[in-house]
Amino acid sequence: MYAFDIERPTTVAEAVAALKDEDAQALSGGQTLIPTLKQRLASPSKLVSLSGIAETKGVSADGGTVTVGGGTTHAAVAAGASAYPALAALAGGIGDPAVRNRGTIGGSVANNDPAACYPAAVLGSGATVVTNAREIAADDYFQGMFTTALDEGEIITAVKFPVPEKAAYIKFEQPASRFALVGVFVAKYADGVRVAVTGASEEGVFRWTEAEAALSGNFSAGALDGLSVSADGMISDLHGTGAYRAHLVAVLTKRAVAAAG
């Protein structure tokens, strides 16, 4: 590591003010940022810890919507999002206990790792990302690998999830990191079905619209027979080729539909 200053604001307003410094970096759960600092891939002179902001923590359910504070840990989501079982199950399967008790939903969604689980839940649920400045629809929020609609210094304060009629998340884990080699989140609402895929594409999380159309007419695994995604643009690495990931998308989507049903 190296020497840096750290501020510990207790309100969102204080954090926003602290992040106005040109070389300041927000620190949430630190599951990505701390390893990045250790490898000297980033070297901000000041970290602004968000862990002491009580107003960004907690899970609540009201009127068919589950709201998760941006500073809520994965473990707290797993324990507290009982009104949205698929979301709670997803959170309970992230990393290991150490990661789940430190990492936060806001940090994960802000980072937008192409293999992270939460982006699939946010996009698959048609959720709304709430920041200190505005509300952003999931379809507008994710803009590519590690890229989002967030502006400099903007902080995720909450994520609002409309609770579907049925939903499930299935992932094929990379065994060392427990990130998704491919993960599929399927959610059925009264006005249609959403299918979000993480871990597969070089562009990050995406919606499989062909599957959504098929499932909106017939919510069953059989409705997906004959459908496939192209291997073009899929991640290809030592863990799996692009073609393998494309194959997993179809397989896991069927499993998610079966689990939801």
Automatic annotation (TrEMBL):
Listed A to Z, the keywords are: FAD, Flavoprotein, Oxidoreductase
Coiled coil, from the record: none
Query: Which InterPro entries does the record cross-reference, listed alphabetically?
Result: CO_DH_flav_C, CO_DH_flav_C_dom_sf, Diverse_Substr_Oxidored, FAD-bd_PCMH, FAD-bd_PCMH-like_sf, FAD-bd_PCMH_sub1, FAD-bd_PCMH_sub2, Mopterin_DH_FAD-bd
* SMART domains noted in UniProt: CO_deh_flav_C
Write the Enzyme Commission number(s) for this entry: 1.2.5.3
The cross-references to SUPFAM superfamilies, in alphabetical order and at most eight, read: CO dehydrogenase flavoprotein C-terminal domain-like, FAD-binding/transporter-associated domain-like
Enzyme class at the top of the EC tree: oxidoreductase
The entry's protein name is Carbon monoxide dehydrogenase medium chain
What's the encoding gene here? coxM_2
